[in-house]
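User: Second chain of the day. Same drill as before.
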Amino acid sequence: MARLADYFVLVAFGPHPRGSGEGQGQILQRFPEKDWEDNPFPQGIELFCQPSGWQLCPERNPPTFFVAVLTDINSERHYCACLTFWEPVEPTQEELCARDAAERDEEADEGGPGALPPPTPSPPGQLFAPKTLVLVSRLDHVEVFRNSLGLIYTIHVEGLNVGLENVVGNLLTCVIPLAGGSQRTISLGAGDRQVIQTPLTDSLPISRCSVALLFRQLGITNVLSLFCAALTEHKVLFLSRSYQRLSDACRGLLALLFPLRYSFTYVPILPARLLEVLSTPTPFIIGVNAAFQAEAQELLDVIVADLDGGTVTVPECVHIPPLPEPLQSQTHSILSMVLDPELELADLAFPPPTTSISSLKMQDKELRAVFLRLFAQLLQGYRWCLHMVRIHPEPVIRFHKAAFLGQRGLVEDDFLMKVLEGMAFAGFVSERGVPYRPTDLFDELVAHEVARMRADENHPQRVLRHVKELAEQLYKNENPYPAVAMHKVQRPGEASHLRRAPRPFPRLDEGMVQWIVDQATAKMQGAPPAVKAEKRTTVPSGPPMTAIVERSGGLHGNSARRLEVVRNCISYVFEGKMLEAKKLLPAVLRALKGRAARRCLAQELHLHVQQNRAVLDHQQFDFVVRMMNCCLQDCTSLDEHGIAAALLPLVTAFCRKLSPGVTQFAYSCVQEHVVWSTPQFWEAMFYGDVQTHIRALYLEPAEDRDSFSVCGGSLGRGMGGPGSRSPVALRQVGEAPVQEDERSALDVASEQRRLWPTLSREKQQELVQKEESTVFSQAIHYANRMSYLLLPLDSSKSRLLRERAGLGELESASNSLVTNSMAGSVAESYDTESGFEDAETCDVAGAVVRFINRFVDKVCTESGVTSDHLKGLHVMVPDIVQMHIETLEAVHRESKRLPPIQKPKLLRPRLLPGEECVLDGLRVYLLPDGREEGAGGPGGGPALLPAEGAVFLTTYRVIFTGMPTDPLVGEQVVVRSFPVAALTKEKRVSVQTPVDQLLQDGLQLRSCTFQLLKMAFDEEVGSDSAELFRKQLHKLRYPPDIRGTFALSLGSAHTPGRPPRANKDKGPSFRTLSRNLVKNAKKTIGRQYVTRKKYNPPSWEHRGQPPPEDQEDEISVSEELEPSTLTPSSALKPSDRMTMSSLVERACCRDYQRLGLGTLSSSLSRAKSEPFRISPVNRMYAICRSYPGLLIVPQSVQDNALQRVSRCYRQNRFPVVCWRSGRSKAVLLRSGGLHGKGVVGLFKAQNAPSPGQSQADSSSLEQEKYLQAVVSSMPRYADASGRNTLSGFSSAHMGSHVPSPRARVTTLSNPMAASASRRTAPRGKWGSVRASGRSGGLSTDVGSRLAGVGPPQANGAPPEPGFLRPQRAALYIIGDKAQLKGVRPDPLQQWELVPIEVFEARQVKASFKKLLKACVPGCPATEPSPASFLRSLEDSEWLIQIHKLLQVSVLVVELLDSGSSVLVSLEDGWDITTQVVSLVQLLSDPFYRTLEGFRLLVEKEWLSFGHRFSHRGAHTLAGQSSGFTPVFLQFLDCVHQIHLQFPMEFEFSPFYLKFLGYHHVSRRFRTFLLDSDYERIELGLLYEEKGDRRAPQACRSVWEYVERLSKRTPVFHNYMYAPEDAEVLRPYSNVSNLKVWDFYTEETLAEGPPYDWELAQGPPEPPEEERPDGGAPQSRRRVVWPCYDSRPRAQPDAISRLLEEMQRLETELGRPPERWKDAWDRVKAAQRLEGRPDGRGTPSSLLVSSVPHHRRSLGVYLQEGPVGSTLSLSLDSDQSSGSTASSSRQAARRSTSTLYSQFQTAESENRSYEGTLYKKGAFMKPWKARWFVLDKTKHQLRYYDHRADTECKGVIDLAEVEAVAPGTPAMGAPKTVDEKAFFDVKTTRRVYNFCAQDVPSAQQWVDQIQSCLSDA
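Assistant: Same format as last time:
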């Protein structure tokens, strides 16, 4: 029984002590006046009566009522019901108040926080003050409180004739039962009657309608997120204008959390003066009046629910984990069925007439029922994870969180993890874990209804029925009786508050009230206590746990077979069949990735332990340890599947004898796992074992013994079951469940708790002591166990331990040993530094002692061990550790004497000439890196990785050589290497060695040649050796100076001490130049270098005239202006002259002459007519260091003007011509981007033309003059009127942009007219005739702005070649959108700006990083799928950048082709500019698509024009921070894309591009070193090549190497090269048309990257037998694996094969072999001649251009790919496409069929007999049906894939056949065939097994072959 009300208080308005307008509450009276003993008076009631503050009011408000909740220090809740009404303020009262206030001043000062605003005088009108009646109670009967206070108010207002003292006294003495469902009628003595119903059970919360209202206000999703937020301990704040609503919402939320109790701050109504509580760091649920919304918005981590607005706001920094699926979606759908039943019927054609909607109260219970079900599903089986640690005197229970999560399959689930770690759940365990207690609805639900809930999952109606049943029970709990008796309580009349009350609320007589209370108390004491005995029972455990989502069967489909393998392997080990075991081991280690197999291992090993000990021999011990390590490596620190728990007893059982008296246990070899250093794991294990022993204490001895045998000893322990019967443990180990009569620990505990009160005092003491000693002995046992697993065998490796033991201090179990592994220091240190060693040991010991002590403290205090016992333990722990260290020393000493395991011999790598080994082989394991092929992925082939071998560091490369660790793979040598210079990232990793599963130090090296070495160092490699390797690698990767690179240090003539010889003259002049550059900006270059006399260059008008006479004798200065006199004159300094002659020989110059851009002849007359000239103005690199020495500029511009123009451009890279179209005579120019105005201003300060003009304008003027000169030096066919512009193109293609305000942007009025009025027929070609349906990614209207084009073509191609209007600008400037703002539009509109958006170098860098990650992930994917690769490829945006480059290039090609010149002026002019300019030339000029032309292109545009190879490749220490940016590689990728689309247009093969891609970063050659010609000259690299060529040393230039190699092998040559004349290529650039370059993905593990040709020529094939002339390639069998062998070399294409064969035969004949090129050219010439006379194509018509129209779609590819490819043609479009000439059709058809028999006149003669036979493949290969042809003419048996196949798959030469005999069916033969249909053909090399379709045809074949043999 309990009091209905504890206190009645009257609180009134009192002025603020500091006299402010806002008052404060004053308690006028409280009853009873002295506190109850069991319930002190709550503080601060006056704040809560008026939460928004006490204020006077100008008018009477109606009375209000709400219930506030206060929580006291013992976390008891007090419900304060407040009824407030208003009374007029009377002056006397105010004075009274003031006096009163003075007395109470001190009191209020303590209570009220902070000062309030200054006073405001009261207005003359009447004011009203609030007065509040408060009822304080510990019971939550809102309606009773409302009625009772209402009654008191009514009596006062209506002036009823009832004594208020009596009513208050009766109210305070009213006593009602707490629970039990009784009904009680009370009366307060004013003729009233109220009925109070108590709930049936106390534990279920009472919610009335609050939950339903909460859902109404906020909606399902919002309430669910609030629910999750409250459970995961977030801060929740409710806002509303109504206090009662706030109370209800908070009550509703708490009701949803049942059976968990909210244990944090809970304030449904927070007073305004306490708002700072909201910034508390702890979680809370608080309600605040919506008036204070602004204060709530400042809080950063509070979830705000606005009840009036129906919103929930979650701040960005807060993450609310959702419920685990499928519970989240199921709960959501059930809630919507409850709240909105009509939703299901909304779509019905004939909805039922009415649907019954539950009342609000009932709906409230239904909603709660949904959440009750949810908790039952979430916590299902929780009792199986309770550990009974103590039973007497009080139960101590722990929850095994890890086992619970593991069983439920929710280890990763954020929500459940947080809930289980929360305070609410801890309370749940201690309250509900107790085995013997009263049960409620939740207990029954979680125990008995789980199966039903699982069955109902997919039947919404059944779920709804269940919810309604539960709702009934909840409703009945709150309303046990139908409301028969009616309430009768008086209420005030309507608007009674507006009537003038007769008097203020009277002061009650304290004495009288107190007398009534005392009377009642005395009566109560006399009466016997009406205690209703609680019905306590054993709490049912319910069915064992199941996973929340059944995992798909696919994962464990083959597990039975795997378990069989594990069992077999273990039995082989213990039977001593080591060879068998060794064969199975790799399969076992793979199987142990699965949970079932790991459990099986633990279980099987248990069977081999007798009396806690199993002594093994060395080999057995090694096997067992390896398997244990493999099991443990996948255990997380939580060990949620109980694997470590099951193995713990085993690691102390298995041992081996090292010498007499010295035994080594398995634990010393399995310490390297994160789980052993996790305190939570040890605690769970400890509690599990304690529970087993405590259970045993109370069980009969016999029963106990059985249970142990069943559960497999300690295996079941610690798995988190209730004692040994744990079905969890059993199910996990896969045994049948045990009979139910076996009682679990919880059952035993429940029984004991029931008996406890009946036991005598002595018996109770005895049991308590027994239990305590059990816990104590287990603590000692665990101290031992922990020392076993935490003390390392070799204490010199203590670094690990210190970090590891330190872990316990940090309480972090995540990273324990990832930092360092067994690779520690070398074992020898043991003897050598013994003094130091001792100190180390102590340190280790100390760390372990601290770890164990912390553990012991925690578990013993939790398990109630007495402090004396605990002290004893603390004394024991150091001794235990010390003892163990001493035993370990002997073990370590002896274990070192074991004979070492034979390691495989190290394989030495082949080195290049001049390559030296820096560090000899360090033993390492090469691990799989996420490219599946090497690990036996879908690419086929065996698991080559992990491999065991060594890593070598040479001056040029990092090389791994080794053998696969998998013994079944065979003796394949695995090589993986990359140039040191290509290293992009090196990071330390901690990895497991594949053999021993030990954690080892490792390194992961990633290179930009798409290689990755992920290595684990062998134990014998000390950490210092590994460190030395890293340091050396770093030194080689980033030499301090470029001279330290391999290419320069290799056999170089100069030593770093001596300056290079070529520098002798130039050094000083260059230095002076750089010093004077800015100083003498006004002086001309001529003066700086050549003469002392001031010289004014001729003005623009006199440009053509020869120089004045008087200057002639000093120096002919005009030579600088005239290309005619480029021949060095005698007046130049010797050094200048040398430079000049060299410059003339450079690649640029050769190319300029080819293009006719400038001549080197001396006839002035001819030179004048040329529009451009070669200017030597930069010959000393004075104007622009990154440009070449000779530049092409307009004839009309003088050299001294160039200096000024150059200042407008970044890096002084002013526009120069780099190519001219032979047909349209348009030129392509390149430059850096324009300077920002500020910079230009600085430079221009000295020579601003006049003070009036702005500096920027003057620079623009220079620029304009220069551009004007460029325009005027072109053929002027374009008039300036009404031209179409290109700006539209950029907007369509380069992303959205706002054209810069100055550039003109016009679009065509009639796009179709434009394409119709093309002047010329389309030249050039597009990449593919097949147009895909996608419209190139441009919407039509944007496309039509594409400079006036019709709807865009598919594949992203610009529409038609002639798509631009004939009238157009003479010059287009393509620039970065951001830079072009500074360029003024051309006044005469002769040039036009095309702003485009380009990516920057850093974006290329970032994109490349992601591309590398995508192609070489670094760690094997969890579930490898092509999609994941494609996704990461897309994320890298690499192909998008390539798409943009191709797009811009095609745009420029179009413009040049139509006769406009283009200036590409992007970034600094050396990255993207270079890419675009090079691509444009490649697409426009067929010369650059030859080997020589491509070399010239790269030398000119990339090397001479100063692409910064060293900077972008981070070649030296200085560039280390900038990182690797593959601008050149990106260009090569673009070329590769074009090559794919136009395979017949390039003289070089795709391999050539890969070769350059590899070597431009390898630093093997000098070609791609340094950033410009200037730097190369300064280092003396540029011109020495010629002089040194005669020396027989390694090639220094990559071109020279290519040249030499091309003479020997056709590897760089493209056989399909058949160019069409003057062809302009226009490739498709859409991302869908681009392919990933195989350079990024392919790998050959047989020999490393194939780009160092000397190394890649692997060992010669063993000459098994001589191949006879007619032998087909099949005669020498060899397995080719896609990622192991280099396919082009293992299976060269048909032509390479024939050329090799010719060379071989010529060598055999003793003739000097002809060069392959000569032979090839001869064949091509012969074929051309042959094709002409009869007009019929021959096979070589593939190679000549006789299929003009459909050439592109007849994809003629020489495949490097699939096995046995000869020349494969995809003639898919042959007949259907209706090609132009019939000859071409025949050519295409005949080409393949006649490849092998060109000399035959008719094919029929060649087929004497043919039919289908099954042929058995070689060893381990299946039978295949083939089409066989017996050819008597050629005397051979050929076979094809099928009848129509024209490509012979193999040949059996009949000359080699020895016999034809009947055969026997071999393995894998076709089942349905008769035995007699088999026959064998025996040749000198091998036996072929055949099988015909039936016996007669078999006989026929045998006869035919026999007759053929006899004919011969």
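The chain is about 40% helix and 15% strand.

User: Great, on to the next one.
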